[in-house]
Amino acid sequence: MANEQVDEEAPILAIAVAAELAGMHPQTLRQYDRLGLVVPARTRGGSRRYSLRHVAQLREVAQMSADGVSLPAISRIIELENQVRMLRREVSGLQARLRDEVAARRGARVFAAGATGSVVTLRQGTRVRRATDVVLWRPSSDD
């Protein structure tokens, strides 16, 4: 169990626990929920459930508020942070797909026979003259 990572997005904390961890009154959390600043998940019965990420956001809201940032500005900052988080996940997924695609293509090499019969390696995407034969060689697992 020591190797397991905690899911910071899991909505597991009741409002009283989240409020205590954030150093706030539960009514403040309810107000922030109504304003859309920090919106927790809900159980089937409608109870609020906060994640560790929500608690971190609550602390950030308290700090920004203490620094004089208005609630509408804090709301926009949180909205943008959530968008950045989503985009980072998307980029990470695209990078993984790209790595898989590059790895799949790594084994394919394209060669062409030159006018004198010599073998010429072609870069991917390079067009060849019509008179040149193109052969695709993919190394087998034996090579």
Automatic annotation (TrEMBL):
PROSITE patterns: HTH_MERR_2. GO terms for molecular function: DNA binding; DNA-binding transcription factor activity. InterPro entries: DNA-bd_dom_put_sf, MerR-type_HTH_dom, MerR_fam. Residues 15-80 form the HTH merR-type domain. PANTHER family: HTH-TYPE TRANSCRIPTIONAL REGULATOR YFMP (PTHR30204:SF58), REDOX-CYCLING DRUG-SENSING TRANSCRIPTIONAL ACTIVATOR SOXR (PTHR30204). It comes from the Bacteria. This is MerR family transcriptional regulator, heat shock protein HspR. Keywords: DNA-binding, Stress response.
